[in-house]
Amino acid sequence: MLPSLHRRLPVTELMDEEHVARIDDASMSILEEVGIVFRDEIALADWKKAGADVRGERVHLDRALVRDLISTIPSGWEYRARNPERSLPFGGNHSIFVPMTGAPFIRDLDDVRRWPTIADLNMFHKLAHMSPALHSTAHHIVEPMDMVVSHRHLAITYSSMKHSDKTFMGMTTSGKKCRGRHGHVRNPVWQRGDGSDARDHRKLQRKLAPGMGRDNVVRYARLLPSQSTGPVLPLRPWRSQHSCLGRPPRWLS
pLDDT tens for residues 201-218? Predict the structure, then answer.
């Protein structure tokens, strides 16, 4: 792997100090007078502990407090990899190169535009590991659409750790997603099915996402917990994956 890039080019100054000071003053005035709404009890408690003016869900930040908090941020640190030889300096004039992330589609070698799968993500993590010019495998280079949302972050992180010993980025998710009745993940969307769920199971098998075979469906179902006995069948996974869209994906319609 190539070392991180140490920049020697001078910084391009787009504005003079007066313009920077005007933007800074306007930004601080918004934080002080308007404030920011945080709809999270933990965040509100942390801001109150830090000395901010918390009024319900709205937090007002004094500019002196903001500058004091900014001063505690280190100018650089070591970005540690599982393999110490692949750890990197971060910050200052050091630059590192990582793959792009979050692609919702993939165009394969057959020139077909389709949804990515966990197998595609595994391959991209392997390619990033083999590329000497990339210092990290990032996280979800492509979005594995064959994994239910409630467990997707776990599959992505596992792929990052399994297929490379370079640095990688952790997944951002909510505490509600991480903690549930099983202690580590949210309630699964896979349950023991009755007749109606079995029909959904057969429908899913007839219209599988590209690259997701029947054996994968069964394997994913068996890996996920169930409180009841009997065969484990997938139960309407699009309710979790596409709740924001209000409709099932195209391959289930």
Answer: 444 444 444 444 444 433
CA distance 95 to 4: 6
Question: What values do phi and psi take at 248, rounded to 5?
Answer: -70, 160
**Count of C-beta atoms within a 10 Å radius of residue 251:** 15
User: Is 116 within 8 Å of 106 (Cβ atoms)?
Assistant: yes
The C-alpha atoms of residue 179 and residue 177 are separated, in whole angstroms, by: 6
Identify which of 217, 218, 243 has the alpha carbon closest to the alpha carbon of residue 146.
Answer: 217
Residue 119: Cβ within 10 Å count: 14
DSSP 106-130: EE-TTS-EE---HHHHHHHHHHHHH
Question: In this structure, which amino acid lies at residue 62?
Answer: D
pLDDT (tens digit per residue) in 114-166: 999 999 999 999 999 999 999 999 989 999 999 988 788 889 999 999 999 99
Token pair of 221, please? 């179902």
Q: Classify residue 53 by its DSSP letter.
A: E
